[in-house]
């Protein structure tokens, strides 16, 4: 079950009307409103939790209250994106004064969730159903929770760990989609080599290689060289340690190199061992079907 956040931006005349109307629309479309919060953003909060485009953008977003709607349901993320553009087309009065924002996956969801819903536990409100699970972080209790996930991908620290009987047992769960092995490229990056789970230990198994950067300095050149050297097909874009601006710049470099972009903390910190991965299941399906 996906969670998403829709933000109703400041509007001195119609803000409350928009907030009520959008809540009604969400319910009518089969979604559950989990929580509602409203606050007037300070300059510091806005710059920390949004990509500030210019002084006009800052002035607009701090001119009145912003209301956040946390909702859940099937395909909540894609619905939010499409609904955003529908409302903007009907009501926006300019490129910046566009009424509505649907929170993007990864870092943006984490920081905006923390800003508007500080008393809620983000572990209980994942944005995506397909998730990356780090095998080394699982204990008995957490392992038992895996069967409740819609889908997950199981990640091993190395080939030896991927060969363990317990790893194979967890990967055999029907909701485990793919498995991955991490190759560390010290000191700046590592590669996650995804495989079909039924071919995990095969020497000639097809792989989809996804780059995980630890250092963003000179990342456009790094991505290009690693693509050529290691034949990577995608890059992890959303990480807790990246700022929103760094994320946006990295995403641009990823697309300029013709790679796909996915997200997730991959065990770095809370939400940690289980972290939503943007569109990785669809990307892996497409990559393996084309191989």
From TrEMBL:
Where are the membrane-spanning stretches? none
Which SMART domains does its entry note? NDK
Instruction: Output the InterPro entries linked to this UniProt entry.
Output: NDK-like_dom, NDK-like_dom_sf
Domain Nucleoside diphosphate kinase-like, by residue range, is: 1-124
Highest rank taxon of the organism: Bacteria
The family line of this record is:
Belongs to the NDK family.
Q: Per its record, how is this protein called by name?
A: Nucleoside diphosphate kinase-like domain-containing protein
Instruction: Please report the organism this UniProt entry assigns to the protein.
Output: Pseudovibrio brasiliensis
